[in-house]
Task: inverse folding
């Protein structure tokens, strides 16, 4: 019997933590300790330390591409030129919301909007978070609008319960399906493949 893989993770925020646990659960991988949750800069300043740790234990680090580069290979080379064998640094194109939008049927139902409003290629959306907010603005459900759309004059980019709603969508039984989303998002498909391949990597105890 193969030994179940337990990964240590680092993420930008709470929604990212819930998502990576959901992905790993689908893949039969257990998530142990989770670091970060204080944004991208926090993780990048500690990435070399995580990479050193990945000589001895399995790691998954999840970061948004945002607009730091035009493509993932460019930032991978910049952020971590020589990854350890047990390190999986994965980049979301361009933000977490892209992967959530990749399950068009479920996100449309959750937001209370027509599925036709969801793009077929969410990885190509320039600002997925604001796209999600705009979808919520047109929701048939008042609670979604109130939670996810910022109040006029607040100066905020998202509504007061935006993150809670994203976590809810990832977590509920009728919510996000990673296997469906992966068929519409190349960056998610690559992430899931990389995590799956971790089970084939063993650490060197020397």
Result:
């Amino acid at each position: 019997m193969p030994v179940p893989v337990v990964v240590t993770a680092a993420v930008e925020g709470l929604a990212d933590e819930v998502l990576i646990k959901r992905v790993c659960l689908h893949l039969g991988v257990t998530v142990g300790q989770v670091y970060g949750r204080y944004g991208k800069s926090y993780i990048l300043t500690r990435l070399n330390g995580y990479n050193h740790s990945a000589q001895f234990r399995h790691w998954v680090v999840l970061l948004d591409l945002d607009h730091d580069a035009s493509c993932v290979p460019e930032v991978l080379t910049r952020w971590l030129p020589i990854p350890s064998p047990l390190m999986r640094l994965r980049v979301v194109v361009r933000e977490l919301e892209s992967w959530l939008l990749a399950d068009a049927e479920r996100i449309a139902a959750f937001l209370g909007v027509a599925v036709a409003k969801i793009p077929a290629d969410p990885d190509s959306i320039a600002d997925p978070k604001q796209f999600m907010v705009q979808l919520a603005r047109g929701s048939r459900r008042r609670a979604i609008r109130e939670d996810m759309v910022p109040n006029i004059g607040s100066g905020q980019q998202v509504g007061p319960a935006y993150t809670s709603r994203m976590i809810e969508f990832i977590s509920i039984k009728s919510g996000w399906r990673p296997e469906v989303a992966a068929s519409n998002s190349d960056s998610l498909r690559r992430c899931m493949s990389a995590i799956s391949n971790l089970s084939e990597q063993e650490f060197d105890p020397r």
